[in-house]
């Protein structure tokens, strides 16, 4: 499960490496980002001239499908289980047509101990942020404007991440991003795409350290939240 993010770094700094054509995400450093907040997503969409463009867009974290009657449904859909994403009405259209990558510096996870829940900071082992497989959707708001929303795909934890929690995000390596966000993948190829995406996940690309319990309060925000504790 992934329910709190560290968004301290500006993903627009990766514009050249990610071959971004358009950057519409306005970054503000945040260190304790809960569902319902706005986060960056990398998508490929046709522009007004029918040209495929790669874009860094802003999305509300918590997927709101087009058929939803209320945007509050998104608070229940900030994660999508990879095991059921092909069948669940909430996600089965998005997985076919609207897949994205979330460039995230890190996320928090809570380990259940005998005494309390210990928070951990999970971050990229290298210089790049973590890239998480996601889905996105469009929902028409009462004022007729469009809300873009997203969810983070999860899977059973493996490697050292299993020591903290039984779920983890579906991480994308650089080679997997292009295929995952490609809108041209036919519906018949989605099961194979999902299988290959899960197969390339490597928990060794993630490092972790314990952090203080103040991160549990979403009103707290600052770089001190990511500092290691004994």
TrEMBL record:
The keyword Transmembrane does not apply. GO terms for biological process: protein-DNA covalent cross-linking repair; proteolysis. It comes from the Bacteria. Keywords: Covalent protein-DNA linkage, DNA damage, DNA-binding, Hydrolase, Lyase, Protease. GO terms for molecular function: lyase activity; peptidase activity; single-stranded DNA binding. Belongs to the SOS response-associated peptidase family. It is an enzyme of class 3 (hydrolase). This is Abasic site processing protein. Its EC number is 3.4.-.-. It comes from Brevibacterium marinum. InterPro entries: SRAP, SRAP-like. Pfam families: SRAP.
């Amino acid at each position: 499960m992934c329910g709190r993010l560290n968004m301290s770094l500006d993903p627009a700094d990766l514009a050249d490496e990610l071959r971004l054509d358009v950057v519409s995400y306005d970054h503000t450093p945040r260190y304790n980002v809960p569902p319902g907040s706005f986060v960056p997503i990398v998508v490929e969409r046709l522009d007004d001239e029918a040209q495929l463009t790669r874009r860094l867009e802003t999305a509300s974290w918590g997927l709101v499908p087009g058929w939803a009657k209320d945007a509050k449904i998104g608070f229940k859909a900030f994660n999508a289980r990879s095991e059921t994403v092909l069948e669940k009405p909430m996600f089965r259209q998005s997985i076919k047509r609207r897949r994205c990558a979330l460039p995230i510096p890190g996320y928090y996870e809570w380990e259940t101990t005998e005494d309390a829940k210990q928070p951990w900071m999970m971050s990229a082992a290298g210089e790049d942020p973590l890239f998480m497989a996601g889905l996105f959707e469009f929902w028409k708001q009462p004022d007729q404007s469009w809300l873009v929303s997203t969810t983070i795909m999860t899977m059973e934890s493996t490697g050292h991440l299993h020591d903290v929690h039984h779920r983890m995000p579906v991480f994308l390596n650089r080679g997997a991003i292009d295929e995952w966000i490609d809108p041209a993948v036919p519906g018949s190829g989605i099961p194979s795409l999902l299988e290959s995406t899960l197969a390339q996940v490597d928990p060794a690309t993630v490092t972790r350290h314990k952090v203080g319990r103040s991160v549990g309060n979403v009103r707290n925000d600052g770089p001190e939240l990511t500092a290691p504790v004994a």
